[in-house]
Amino acid sequence: MSNNSNELLGESLFGKVRRKVLSTFVLNPDRSFYLLELIRLLDCGRGAVQREVSKLAKAGIIIRTRIGNQVHYTTNTNNLIYRELKSIFSKTTGLVELLGADLQSCTDKLGMAFVYGEYANGTAGESSKVNLMVIGDTTMDAVSSCTLDFSKETARELHITVLTVTELKRRLTSRDSRIQEIIEDKKIFLCGGHRELQFLATKGDDLFAGIF
Asked: How many C-alpha atoms does 23 have within 13 Å on its Cβ side?
């Protein structure tokens, strides 16, 4: 169980599987999912996911549609409580998922993106901001543009740092204590992962060109 007060709030309202299924649909209203895709995505048992999907479809929260031999499910954005559900998950257990979905809409290719600080450490309070770092060949304008509505939807301030790989290496070489602290602290990866970050933080300058 999480130590994050926002995560605990989400956990107290919904069971584990229902929370995962609901947040996936509510925070991805433009996507459709088929059952096996959901099972793989959520890493939950087939029976549990199937039961929740069936209940949500009967309640009209998601829509069941047959396409060829497959049954697909989509979010019913016209459902009476859709906006309330989106607000709940945006502010609690779905906050990081929502940010990840926003980043997927970015027109620039993101090399690496992760949340760090209080939210990643599980110590976020009601007024804590979400710290996002993006490393790669993109711009602050591009990242800001695709996350424009995040603060409004989540009631959370979003603090963005964008670095090129070269700039990251330069700051690490110059022993920038803040960057070193971020690299060593806990993170929630939205693009890339620990292995790639370790590679960037330890390899020589001549290996960095063109990675992202």
From this structure: 27
Tokens linked to 210: 């063109």
| Cβ-proximal residues to 94 (8 Å cutoff; 6+ apart), any chain | 10, 23, 26, 27
Give the tens place of pLDDT for each residue, 86-126: 877 766 666 777 788 788 888 778 889 999 998 888 777 66
Question: Could you tell me the two tokens for 71?
Answer: 């049954």
- Mean pLDDT: which of 17-21, 92-96, 139-143, 151-155 is highest? 139-143
Q: Can you say how many angstroms the Cα of residue 25 is from the centroid of all Cα atoms in its chain?
A: 13
* Residue 117 φ/ψ, nearest 5 degrees: 90, -150
Nearest to 143 by CA among 154, 159, 155: 159
CATH class held by domain 94-207: alpha beta
How much is the pTM? Answer: 0.62
Hey, which CATH number is domain 5-87, 1.10.10.10, 3.40.30.10, 3.40.50.300, 3.40.50.2000? 1.10.10.10
